[in-house]
């Protein structure tokens, strides 16, 4: 789960000594079902409102004096995670890093309940040591949820699977509020952002017509591939399961690139026959190869081996530019 690894990387930037974990639940008696509860939280923006209210605190008048009923919490960063109960009701884990250390960072159950009035119960805890923090973050990175033996908390409830166009965000981050939705929507070559490609037919489906059930059912049935040939590059969706690609074409996974493998001309033609939707780019390197000095290196972006040496520097390293993607690297 790449999103869990990315979220875990965000959490590792937190100072565990100043971090509190808050669990916010929903009282089922206040709502008809989990869908109504989730819609209410989203429409009324209860999560960002909860964070703002913690930062604002509560000033009340006692007699002639104004006093703090709840002192403002100086939040330096936070991250929220959505999980599900078996009943289909949502709950959230909120990691809050404050400017204060240890017990001085405690927020308090009264303040949390005051600013989360829809709760059945709330819970606040701290991390006893760096080991405790690393174990918690590591478990989440591996499994995608926090509490052991509760895998159901990562599964979408039944009501969420059949609603066309529904988008559910698993996490939000004070450091990266502009993060894109983590569904399987993609931007196609025609610029239709968010459209879904059916891996069996190659049809483009508008996002408001696609359910999570269809997205999950499509997982693994098609593979996005880039094929680099003598005079062209082909990128597109192929009607071949990803596991079948790994089985039929031995290769290796490269960080930042993906699964890389080599194929013969016959194998490339066989793959092209299974392409559902794609784009072809042609390029000519003959003249460049004759006129300029070529040094071979591996490009971590496009996978090309051919580099053009653009200038030498005085130390032992050289600068090269990839002829295909034009990225510049130092070796």
TrEMBL record:
Composition-biased stretches (Basic and acidic residues): 175-191
Region ranges (Disordered): 172-191
Protein name: Uncharacterized protein
Organism for this UniProt entry: marine sediment metagenome
């Amino acid at each position: 789960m790449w999103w869990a690894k990315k979220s875990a990387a965000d959490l590792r930037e937190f100072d565990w000594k100043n971090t509190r974990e808050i669990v916010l639940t929903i009282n089922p008696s206040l709502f008809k079902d989990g869908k109504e509860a989730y819609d209410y939280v989203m429409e009324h923006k209860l999560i960002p409102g909860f964070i703002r209210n913690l930062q604002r605190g509560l000033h009340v008048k006692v007699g002639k004096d104004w006093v703090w009923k709840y002192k403002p919490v100086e939040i330096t960063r936070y991250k929220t995670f959505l999980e599900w109960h078996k009943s289909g009701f949502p709950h959230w884990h909120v990691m809050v890093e404050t400017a204060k250390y240890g017990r001085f960072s405690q927020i308090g159950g009264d303040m949390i309940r005051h600013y989360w009035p829809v709760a059945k119960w709330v819970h606040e805890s701290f991390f006893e040591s760096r080991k405790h923090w690393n174990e918690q973050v590591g478990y989440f990175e591996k499994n995608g949820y926090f509490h052991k033996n509760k895998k159901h908390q990562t599964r979408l409830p039944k009501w969420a699977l059949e609603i066309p166009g529904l988008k559910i965000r698993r996490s939000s981050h004070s450091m990266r509020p502009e993060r894109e939705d983590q569904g399987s929507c993609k931007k196609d070559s025609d610029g239709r952002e968010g459209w879904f490609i059916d891996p069996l037919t190659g049809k483009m489906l508008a996002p408001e017509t696609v359910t999570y059930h269809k997205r999950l059912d499509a997982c693994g049935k098609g593979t996005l591939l880039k094929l680099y040939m003598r005079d062209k590059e082909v990128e597109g969706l192929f009607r071949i399961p990803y596991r079948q690609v790994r089985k039929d074409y031995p290769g290796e996974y490269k960080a930042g690139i993906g699964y890389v493998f080599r194929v013969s001309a016959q194998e490339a033609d066989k793959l092209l026959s299974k392409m559902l939707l794609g784009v072809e780019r042609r390029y000519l390197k003959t003249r460049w190869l004759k006129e300029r000095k070529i040094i071979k290196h591996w490009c971590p972006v496009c996978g090309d081996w051919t580099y053009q040496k653009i200038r030498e520097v005085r130390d032992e390293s050289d600068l090269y530019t990839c002829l295909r993607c034009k990225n510049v690297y130092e070796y």
